[in-house]
Amino acid sequence: MNALPPARRLRVAIIGGGFSGTAVAWHLAQAHRLERLSISVIEPRPALGGGLAYSSEEPSHRVNVPAVRMSMAPDDPQHFARWLAGSGELEHDADALWKNGDAYPRRRVFGRYVTEHLAPYLASGAVRHVGGLATGVTRDANGAGWTVQTSAGPVVADIVVLAATHPAPAIPAALASLAEAPGFVADPYAASALAGIVPQASVLIVGSGLTSADMVAELDRRGHRGRIMALSRRGLRSRGHPDVRGEAFGDFASAPATSALGLLKTIRATLAAARAANVNWQSVFDQLRLQGPVLWAALAPPERARLVRQLRVFWDVHRFRIAPQIASVLDRRQAAGTFDTIAARLVASNDEGESLAVSFQRRGQTLIETARFDAVINTTGPAHGQALQLNPALRSLAEAGLIRVDAHGLGIATTLDSRAIGRDDRSVAGLFVAGPLARGTFGELMGLPEVARHAQMVAGEIARLVDRLPSVEAVGANAGDVAAAR
């Protein structure tokens, strides 16, 4: 009696091997029978897991939340903290432990943690690292499969997961004339980006969020003692963590607001209640973060757009907090008069050879000022709105009408199960979006806990799809067509 031929494995290609893509691969490898899966992660960096956020070798770049709140396993919040305790990393980094006992290790340490947890699956062959850049994605003529073109050769897949890295910051139009100037830093996280800035240089940092704070801390570690000015439209600096962490406070989900104004009123009332109860404001924002998906889902598209347009900047500086080690550097420099943050809009710039002239208008003023700097660092944040043009793989899908920008310009439009939505407003079978590029649908998807939960959800959707379908040939069918696939 002849044995039946082995079933062909479901081929999953994940574009992007930073935290989002690696977490999807890890959850997939854990959640499903590996004899039915073939997982390829396409990532040009030599190791999976670090990505842009967690591959920095700069000692001053630290995780932004305590280690006890970081985990690639959402159901096991202490996953990273336990690994960190036994890793030996804290013994070599005395500054990682803050005075309240919380650990804020260097960012590359978290990348190492992610890499090590995927390593057994790479060693067994359950997950394959394709060491190249994805340059294009095409769908088979019958709609049941995909080919991802990479600089390391083509990857054929039944399912593609888009987990691309954050796009590089866009250069503001007013700084375009400085793009080729020696003192202009377009990509602050590029290797040795700040190495050429001398200790007494005057520096302008465009942006005042997390990346801006990183740059101040790195310059300070490198011995810089000159003048640093951070400029942004609102002049808001990222907030810090409380000395004593508390439990999440408030309830925004039982009767979620249906308008941006209503949500703002609820937040203000909850903050007032927190003050009366001697609870720090961070606990209120922790609850907002936990209940964010419910709040986002309760808002109609026009209200979501209003929230993004009018309140996002305030949310960002309270939600995305800086490590206390970095906050202490900013506070010290500000007290010494060598660091300041201003609210202003850029007007123009000029490379004068010996210096970079930047003109700006302070918020609420009519006068246009011009100041000269030895270096200008662009920290305006990822250009999510341009991701579909800047990333060649995403661009190819957009040109084919298989993905489109979400209604709020935050990333890629998706369904509630994270399938991509094409130009025809229909979901695209076999094409998923994981990580921050899906936040137009899911709301808050920039913080690590939210990204980890989303990666777990995407992996679960793929695993369920495999379980429901009798053969790989049916994978390309829409979920509604599963019953008719055979």
Major beta sheet, strand line-up: 8-14-9-10-11-12-13
Please report the total strand number as a whole number. Answer: 16
Helix content: 25-40%
Order of helices and strands: EHEHHEEEEEEEHEHHHHHEEEEHHEEHH
Average pLDDT, rounded to a whole number, is 88
Note the main sheet.
Answer: 7 strands, mixed
CA radius of gyration = 23 Å
Q: What spatial form do the alpha-carbon principal axes imply?
A: globular
What is the helix tally? 13
Decide which structural class fits the backbone: alpha/beta
- Taking the alpha carbons of the first and last residues, their distance comes to 26 Å
Strand content: 15-25%
Low-confidence stretches are 1-5, 472-486
Structural commentary:
It is a single chain. Helix 1 (19-31) runs parallel beside helix 3, helix 1 crosses helix 13 and helix 4 (210-221) packs across helix 9 (324-336). The chain contains 13 helices and 16 strands. The chain has helices spanning 19-31, 79-87, 107-124, 210-221, 260-276, 281-290, 292-298, 301-319, 324-336, 387-390, 392-399, 439-442, 448-468; strands spanning 10-15, 37-42, 127-130, 134-139, 146-150, 155-157, 159-162, 184-185, 203-206, 228-232, 339-351, 356-362, 368-373, 375-378, 419-421, 427-433. The chain has a seven-stranded mixed β-sheet. The protein starts with 9 loop residues before the first strand and ends in an 18-residue tail after the last helix. The protein is of the alpha/beta class and 486 residues long.
